[in-house]
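Minimal example, chain plus zinc ion.
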Amino acid sequence: MEFIVRQLAWRPDTILVRYDCACGCKPNVEYLRGSDSVEHEHCCCGNLHFVGKDARHHLDAYLAGRSQQHLDDDLGGYRVSEVTVDAPWGEAVPVAYALPAVARKH
Ligand SMILES: [Zn+2]
Ligand SMILES: [Zn+2]
């Protein structure tokens, strides 16, 4: 998974972290410099990514909640990975993402 980081011209303390999804969508998540809030986007095909401090922890909690409600039973489980992306102000920003074994249709 290749993430693209874009700094907002009108809010230079904010980046968008996105990828070009195989389904055709471009899921993106905002991250504000120094922020403790962790945003995520869950793509229509089942891929999802969280950006920010303790991203992995938030992703795990989110997936556990969905699993309890059997929302993702059709996906055959997720493969979870962690990376960091470089913000233009020199911060390594954590990204956690999960890819389902079976993708949903776009
Ligand atoms: Zn997708
Ligand atoms: Zn899609």
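Residues 35 and 52 are 8 Å apart (CA to CA). The chain has a mean pLDDT of 97.
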